[in-house]
Structures are given as C-alpha cells and as structure tokens.
Amino acid sequence: MAQGERDNTTVIDVESLVSSMENKIMGKQLSLSPDHCIFRTPSILVKHRKEAYVPNCFSFGPFHHDQPNLKVTEKIKLKYLQGLLYRIGNPKEVYRELLNSIKKVEGEARDCYAGNIDQNVAVARNFVEMLVVDGCFIIELFRKDDNVVPKEDDDPIFSMSCMLQFLHNDLILLENQIPWFALDILFNKTKGPSETKSLIELALHFLGTVFSSHSLPLDRIPNLFKDQKVKHILDLLRLSLVLPSEEVKIYERKRRLKQQNLEWQPIPSATRLQEAGVKFVRVNVDSILDMKFRNGVLEIPSLLIQETTETIFRNLISYEQCLPNCSPIFTSYAKIMDNLIDTTNDMEILCKKEIFDNWLSPEDATEFFNKLYNDTYVKEFYFCELCNALNHHCQQWWPKWRASYVQNYFTKPWAIAAQIYAIIMFILTFWQTFK
Fold first, then answer.
1. Quick one: angle between helices 329-340 and 309-322, nearest 10?
2. What is the 8-class DSSP label of residue 34?
3. pLDDT per residue over 112-147, tens digit each?
4. First and final CA of the chain: distance in angstroms?
5. Rounded CA separation 114/229 (Å)
6. What is d(CA 175, CA 270) in angstroms, rounded to the nearest whole number?
7. Pick from 217, 218, 243: which is nearest to 230 by CA?
8. Neighbours of 247 (CB within 10 A)
9. Which residues of 165-194 are buried (b: 16+ CB within 10 A; e: fewer)?
10. Spatial separation of the C-alpha atoms in residues 342 and 2, rounded to whole Å
11. Comparison of pLDDT for 212 and 434, the residue scoring more
12. In 5-49, which residue ranges form alpha helices assigned H by DSSP?
C-alpha cells in the first residue's frame, strides 16, 4: 500500500452477524397468520384517496383508537353501554361477564389484526375493554335501528342527521373492524328473550341499502349464511352481495370444472356500445354483480351512487387485495365499470336508463369509476364471458357498420342535417320519377 493511502477495509464479525440473524428468525412466526383478516390499507392504495380509509367520527378496534379527533364520540359509546347494562339489570355483574367472555378469546381476536397492535401501550392494556365497549355500541346501534329496543329522545345518533351518515362510512372501513365472533359473543350474552332476529339480520338491515334501494330479502338470509364464517362487518357486506350472485356461482362452477375462459379484452364504453346497437336495461336482482348480456341487451342491476359509495368500494377492493386467497370479485366489478364509463356522456346514458341512481355530479361520478381500481391486481377476472360476448357482438358486421355510421353521420349537427336533406331529396326524386 502506498504511503499516505487510506485503508478503507471494513472488518466483518461473521459470528456476531450469525448470532444477530439467529435472534431474528429462530423460533419466530414469520409467515402471515391465516387468521389475519383486518389490515391496514396498503400505502399504494391510500395515496389515491386517503380520506376513504380513515374514520370520520368513530373508531372501532385498535388501529385508530388513540386518534384525538375521534375521542369525542367515546362518550356516545359509553352512553349506549350504560343503556344496555341497565336494561338487562345488575350492570356490574353483566359487565364483568362480558369482559370475561371476551378475555377468553383475546388471543384469537388479536390474531385477526395484521401488524403490531401493541405499539400503543394503552391500547394493548385495554384491548379487551375496547372490544366490549365498541362491540356493545355496534350491537345496540343495530338493535335501535331495527326498533328492537327503543330510541331515547336525546339519542345523538338518531337525533342528529349527520351521525348515521358517519356510521355508514366508519363501520365499513377495513382498518376499523372488530372480529365478528367477538360481536356475536356480546350479542348472545345481551340478547333479550323477545329478540328473534340474528345479528346478521340486524347488521344487514342497517347496511341493506348502501348499494341499492333493492335490499336482500330477509327470508333469504338464514339459508345464505348457513355455515358461513363471517370475519367482520366489511366481510359481511361483501358476502351479502357475493353469496346471492348467480353469475358468481356460474363462474365458480366453471372454474371447478376448468371450463372457464380466462382470456378477455376490455369492452367499449356505454356510448360506443349504444352506437353498436346494444340496449341497456335495469334489472332488480339480489346482487349488483349479476350483469348479463343476451339478445343484444345488457342487463345491469341498479346501483346507488352517493357520498359513501366510493369509500365502500375502495375498502372492499382493499380487503380483496390484502386477504390471502380472496377472489377479486369487486375489483373485477370496478374494472368493468371503468370500461363502461369513460366520459360523462356514458354516465348520463346509464342514468337515463335508471341503472344508476346518481346523487353526485356526472363529473364526480365518472371520475370515481375511472380511478377506482388503480394500482390493484386482478388475478382472476370474474366478467370474462360478459366482456367476450359484448366484444363479439360489436365485431359482427351489422353492429360494427351501425356504430361506424352513427359515429360518422349522427354525432355532429351538420352531418345530421345533411342526412335529413339527403333523405328528403331521395323521397322527392322517387316521387317525381313515378308521378
């Protein structure tokens, strides 16, 4: 080494590295727990619309429990818990029983949350109490909404018009969930002798019209959810649309038999489909997923588009992206809707057919669909056959010629006038010839 030249060689202690790695990996559970079902939304999805993934007023579960802006509604939760305990009687003993019941499943409940929920010492210490307070509030909310128990005149949830809107938003956030089995335990422990409806029925009554004015018939719920393991409220909402869907059942059956065609191409927009002679018809079915194309008619279930619609879809999509082996059904739905709705004209076509009940501006509703599934991955597309059927229809000579003719001669006022003039001249010439 030349004089004055610096030795940059770093001495590596191999044994210390081996010991360090041993501490990191030996005897530790590094794989994703199969019980994880409540996740923090991936940052790649959050960046598109952060406010769609965080609660407005109410925190449920540990992820947002320590947020200062949500502390004010803790008093409302305690008011609901107080009403529940005093209605049952012997409040101290009942509360002790509720705490002990949740304490028995604390480990199982913790396993439902992906990520470290013990970083906040207060949340970690009060985890059981938090589940009891949050869970009893949700259960009482569902009971009051369905008039199972009376509402007090000073009840802030039902006397303030904004509160129900906030709850419809906050209850379906992926990061704001409570394990369903914990809710079910609390429900059964506090169930009155005259109560006949299940917790699933009460929850779906509260959430029943978030997508459409046509809600799932109550008499179908027991059979649909028989032997079905519900993970949380967001999962229940998803299942309430997936389980009754005939199209999803057909897809799953063909997949099991390996008859499902997985190749597909995007479909034209609603405007282009209309130019090709496709007719749009609203249908009232039990699931918004049941779109069908037959005899030149595209049948689309009605969809309510309002302030909370984007939030619900984004959280359903985020849930499908995070949950292992979860079928990307709503992600597929978002993708085909983005194909259909390219401009405000497409939105207006579907609104005029009463397929969409849109409470937003056409511009906002169009933008919502155009950006809904960005940065998501669709391993299986559930509307392959629908897309293939529509594309096949548009490639036939008559729809193809009709679309070209309409686009070239009926999209501009002067072209329409020229067509009318040509028709009049043809009629006059024909009449003059045979006069």
1. 130
2. T
3. 999 877 656 566 679 999 999 999 999 999 999 999
4. 114
5. 19
6. 35
7. 243
8. 18
9. ebbbbbbbbbbbbbbbbbbbbbbebbbeee
10. 69
11. 212
12. 14-25, 43-46
Secondary structure (3-state) at 282: strand
What pLDDT, in 10s, does the model give residues 220-273? 888 889 889 999 999 999 999 999 999 999 888 888 877 777 778 899 999 999
Cα distances (Å, whole numbers) of residue 383 to 248, 250, 297, 380 = 9, 11, 16, 9
Tell me the helix, strand and coil percentages in the chain, rounded to 5: 55, 5, 40
Contact indicator for 333, 291 with CB cutoff of 8 Å = no
**How would you label 401-411 residue by residue, b for 16+ Cβ within 10 Å and e otherwise?**
eebeebeeeee
How does pLDDT run across 43-88, given as a tens digit for each residue? Answer: 999 999 999 999 999 999 999 998 999 999 999 999 999 999 999 9
Q: What is the DSSP letter of 38?
A: B
* Distance, CA of 20 to CA of 5 (rounded, Å): 33
DSSP for 338-392, written as a single string:
HHH-SSHHHHHHHHHTTSEEE-S-HHHHHHHHHTTTTT---SS-TTHHHHHHHHH
Q: In 225-343, which residue ranges form alpha helices assigned H by DSSP?
A: 233-242, 246-256, 270-275, 309-322, 329-340
Q: Which residues pair with 9 in a beta bridge?
A: none
| CA-closest candidate to residue 146, choices 182, 76, 77, 194 | 194
Mean pLDDT (the chain) is 87
Q: What is the pLDDT of residue 133?
A: 97
**CA–CA distances in Å: residue 93 to residues 75, 99, 128:** 21, 10, 16
Residue whose token pair is 């959050």: 46
How far apart are alpha carbons 200 and 223 in whole angstroms?
12
Which tokens hold the place of 319?
């849930």
Phi first, then psi: what are they for 434, rounded to 5°? -100, 15
In which band, very low, low, confident or very high, does the pLDDT at 434 lie, cut at 50, 70 and 90?
low
Interatomic CA distance for residues 79 and 73, integer angstroms: 10
